[in-house]
Amino acid sequence: MTLESDVSDLWRRYEGGLSAAETTADDVAVLDDFLAALEAGEVRAAEKTGDDVTSWEANEWVKRGILLNFGLRETEPREYGGVTYYDVLPLRNTDDLAERGTRNTPDGTVLRRGAYLGSDCILMSPSFLNMGAYVGDGTLVDSCDTVGSCAQIGADVKLGANTLIGGVLEPIEDAPVVIEDGVSLGAGCRVTSGFRVGEGSIVGENTLLTPRIPVYDLVEEEVIYGHLPGERRAFTRMVESSVGDHDLFEGGAYKPAVVATHVEEETLEATRREGALRE
């Protein structure tokens, strides 16, 4: 039996009515082995199946395994830093970080079980990584950042301070938020609802990236939804909204949009200087 087949079998029993109170020691062992595989980077909630950023697909069985860890465990009182909290899982053990050159600053870098961290990462306090999140080598997670459940963050990514990377568990077939290698997100960015950011893109601060907001790609001269192509410089602009035709709006109404252009050399130089601070 493989881990995937064990999880799939447990999922069938869960859909048939299996409860947390009815789980056996063998069932819990499957759940624990699954979390260990996530933390080791051996399984991921989504994988890239082609060359384009739009080719990411969810691993349905992995997302089911994460849901099982919520549905088949009892909420218990737990201790951290002298504080009692209540959850289905303890926090992730971080003893493996030092051997990979990854560091997290005190106090308040919270890693939930099932989160993966690569080598040479930096987690600034406070920050939060949820179950199923994957963070690649050399990535900086800055202060007040949240990386949601199943979010896939590539290598050498910079998440600016106060950045929110949304998570997704249901529907199970939907791919989570993806930030590919070499991306830089400015402070205050929000990336939600399965939006995908292509490799090497640089996103201006306070930009909202979500499938409901259009991306005006000036490079290919097209309007796209749900993803930002690679090697783009993106920022928020306001465009006219049809709501402005309503009598209640005097002088028109506007809605947010994202404009994407070529990455300029000056922008790359600024990003390289910021990267030097992580050495």
Automatic annotation (TrEMBL):
UniProt EC number: 2.3.1.117
Name the UniProt key words of this record, in alphabetical order.
Answer: Acyltransferase, Transferase
Q: Which residues form a coiled coil?
A: none
InterPro entries noted in UniProt: THP_succinylTrfase_dom1 (IPR023180), THP_succinylTrfase_N_sf (IPR037133), Trimer_LpxA-like_sf (IPR011004)
* Gene Ontology molecular function terms on file: 2,3,4,5-tetrahydropyridine-2,6-dicarboxylate N-succinyltransferase activity
Which Pfam families does its entry note? THDPS_N_2
> What EC class does the entry list?
transferase
Family per UniProt?
Belongs to the transferase hexapeptide repeat family.
Q: What is this protein called?
A: 2,3,4,5-tetrahydropyridine-2,6-dicarboxylate N-succinyltransferase
Organism this protein belongs to = Halorubrum glutamatedens
Q: What is the lineage of its organism?
A: Archaea, Methanobacteriati, Methanobacteriota, Stenosarchaea group, Halobacteria
